[in-house]
Amino acid sequence: MMEALFRADAYAKSCEAEVLAVDGRGVQLDRSVFYPEGGGQPGDTGLLRSADGRELRITDTRKGAQPGEILHIPAEAADWLWPGLRVTAEIDWARRHRLMRMHTCLHLLSAIIIAPVTGGQVGDGYGRLDFDLPETPDKDEVNEKLNALVRSDAPVSFRWITDTELDAHPELVKTMSVQPPRGVGRVRLVNIEGVDLQPCGGTHVARIGEIGAVTISKIEKKGRQNRRVRLEFPGATSSHAD
Fold this sequence. Notes:
This protein has helices at residues 5-8, 93-112, 139-152, 163-168; strands spanning 3-4, 14-23, 26-29, 31-32, 46-50, 55-63, 70-74, 86-91, 117-122, 126-131, 156-162, 186-192, 196-199, 215-221, 227-232. The protein is of the alpha+beta class. The protein folds into 2 domains: 3-91, Elongation Factor Tu (Ef-tu), domain 3 (Beta Barrel); 96-232, Threonyl-tRNA Synthetase, Chain A, domain 2. The two termini are 34 Å apart.
């Protein structure tokens, strides 16, 4: 199983690694700082660099078919890579940091709007959560509460519980559409001190003040019992997907 360095340190920007395999699916390394797509968070992008200066651009990172397998998707053919080659794996840190900030911000949103979460998306500078709600929340009120929470600058920490412990506390799972990552016998909890506690395998900031200013851009009615809340960072230019 590959050593997933991003789980232990979301702020690690690069690492030395050995190539395990290269095929049509992507590049596998023995260790990586690249986060694979999952839980609504996109996979990382970045570079693989050899000691002699050759570079391979990575456009996406995904989970493989086997537990713990992570595939780094290259932009072009990786003919100069072979198993055993040592490389430096380096993520696009500016993009990752925006994703970390938004992912943590969505956890705050789920603590403000008390309702089951039916869907969500972490985007580069924007995000959304869908709630099982019959009434539309007041946008200005949600916006004010969210930014007040961000300014409180609460710390974010992590701890692990067993699958059995999670089964005994189903109230920890807020998302109806995305289940916590299982398969290794334990699940990671993300704790925003005094604000929120829920299982999540994504990357997060160390303190919520790092999120910065955020705006509720729209609250949409997506059905009799579904409300979609969209938010973004000031100056975000990425297009919003449904």
